[in-house]
Amino acid sequence: MNDFISKFKWVLVGGGLFILVGIIVLVAVLASGSRDSDDLAAPPTDASGSPVPPVERVDRQEFNGDGATEENFKAGGGLTLLRFTHSGGGSSNFIVTVSQDGQLIDQVVNAIGPFEGTRAVSLPVGDYVMEVRPGAGEWTAQIDQSVPEEAPPPPVEFSGSGQSATEFFSLEAGSVDFRLLHEGEGVFIPSLVRSDGTRVESIVNESGDFSSRVTVNIKNAGIYLIDVLANGEWEIEVTQ
Fold first, then answer.
1. What is the pLDDT of residues 33-44, one digit of tens each?
2. Pick the CATH number of 46-146 from 3.30.420.40, 2.60.120.380, 2.30.110.10, 3.30.2130.30
3. Three-state SS at 2
4. CATH class of 148-240
5. How does pLDDT run across 20-33, given as a tens digit for each residue?
6. Parallel, antiparallel, or unpaired: how do β-strands 222-230 and 164-165 relate?
7. Where are the beta strands (DSSP E) in the chain?
8. In this structure, are residues 79 and 145 in contact, taking their beta carbons and an 8 Å threshold?
9. In the predicted model, what is the mean pLDDT of residues 179-195?
10. How crowded is residue 228: how many other Cβ atoms within 10 Å of its Cβ?
11. Which H helix or E strand runs over 12?
């Protein structure tokens, strides 16, 4: 009887040791996996927690021509400013599109006659084709991805005619007031764009003569500009 009890105790002790060793091994494996996960670098995010697209350094690119053509260019990601001039006559169509791998990305200009303006777009890293459509006269194009590290805060004022992008300015998170004036026929769509290329929102979407004040709530402090799509003369004042 005593021999049986001794054997039974040995089984309990041995089994307990076996279970204890198994638990230690399991904890070590889980801890190792946790460390491996922590060692992986998390992708960069902006102030809102959204992933930040990769950005590469691309020098300013310039093109010019007379009439229709296609030009290849590179984008480094983020905000891209497309500046154009067109000296064609009053009946000359100046239509410029941007495509990638045969797929249309955006029609960046659609004007008749002389034109000088800028379009702000967001283009991921890659190779693109800029096509100047038939009907154009002499033209120039500049593709610029330079963004300043600092910009003046409000109050700031801008004015222009037709399609254009304003200079850069800085904003704090919170309410921003825009005084808007447009004189002329056609659309008036000023859009607030962050320096990383994020199109925050259209401040207004109107047509014809327009004058008003609009308040927009900004979630993230940073450097911004206003991309204006218009046909007439316009003025914008920004205060905060």
1. 433 333 333 444
2. 2.60.120.380
3. helix
4. mainly beta
5. 334 443 334 334 44
6. antiparallel
7. 61-66, 69-75, 79-86, 93-100, 103-112, 115-122, 126-132, 138-144, 156-161, 164-165, 169-171, 174-183, 187-194, 199-202, 206-207, 210-218, 222-230, 233-239
8. yes
9. 95
10. 26
11. helix 2-39
